[in-house]
Design brief:
The complex is a heterodimer. By secondary structure, chain A is mostly beta strands. Chain A has strands at 3-5, 10-14, 19-21, 24-26, 32-38, 44-50, 56-58, 64-68, 73-78, 87-97, 100-105, 109-114. Classes of the chains: A mainly beta, B mainly beta.
């Protein structure tokens, strides 16, 4: 079965420090990987994606993510965290199932950036 | 350009009542999805529609029905609401190909009492 795991329910980091939000996946074939952010009482907003090519992808708001095929991971990173980065982050994978692409989401990681 | 629009934003139902959640997108996307979000469980796919005229069950379809009315609109119906259906519901749309991201609506917060 295809799945996405976000092993940490919550990540706390001090403002100005680097942050990492972890994601691992289990799929057959080549995955397309995505990160989304959700602010309170809002829908999900797309941050970045990995399709192919360079393993380090850059996205919105200074976020980047590193794709590691051997470890089946796609961790979200930012060199210097801001208090405004505090939100719920979701990792997702999209693979063809029965000829139709569906998005499979992880359970989410709450990021708290402390001033 | 509104993106994905969901109505209503909030709803309280009594057990056994029915209702339809509406979703419309203006990006000419082929595929549309309904997810529910529950604490600690992330987003779970209820139903999806790969293209106009087709619908398929997702991970948690029981108690729901859907209609892909046209390319723009994809509705979710609860025929007989149950407290277990208390959740936040999100509609999303995307191109059918795998390389593209989905766009989400603002969500509907449903409480069944």
């Amino acid at each position: 079965a295809q799945s996405v795991a976000q092993p940490e329910d919550q990540v706390n980091v001090a403002e100005g420090n680097p942050l990492t939000v972890k994601c691992t996946y289990s799929v057959s074939g080549n995955p397309y990987l995505f990160w989304y952010v959700q602010y309170p009482n809002r829908g999900l907003q797309f941050l970045l994606k990995y399709i192919t090519g360079d393993n380090l992808v850059k996205g919105s708001y200074g976020f980047e993510a590193e794709f590691n095929k051997s470890q089946t991971s796609f961790h979200l990173k930012k060199p210097s965290a801001l208090v405004s980065d505090s939100a719920l982050y979701f990792c997702a994978v999209r693979t063809p199932t029965s000829g139709t692409y569906k998005y499979i989401f992880g359970t989410g990681t709450r990021l708290k950036v402390l001033a | 350009n509104a993106g994905v629009t969901q109505t209503p934003k909030f709803q309280v139902l009594k057990t056994g009542q029915s209702m339809t959640l509406q979703c419309a997108q203006d990006m000419n996307h082929n595929s549309m999805y309904w997810y529910r979000q529950d604490p600690g469980m992330g987003l779970r796919l209820i139903y999806y529609s790969a293209s106009e005229g087709t619908t398929d069950k997702g991970e948690v379809p029981n108690g729901y029905n859907v209609s892909r009315l046209n390319k723009r609109e994809f509705s979710l119906r609860l025929e007989s609401a149950a407290p277990s259906q208390t959740s936040v519901y999100f509609c999303a749309s995307s191109w059918t190909g795998g390389r593209t991201e989905a766009f989400f609506g603002q969500g509907t917060r449903l409480t069944v009492v």
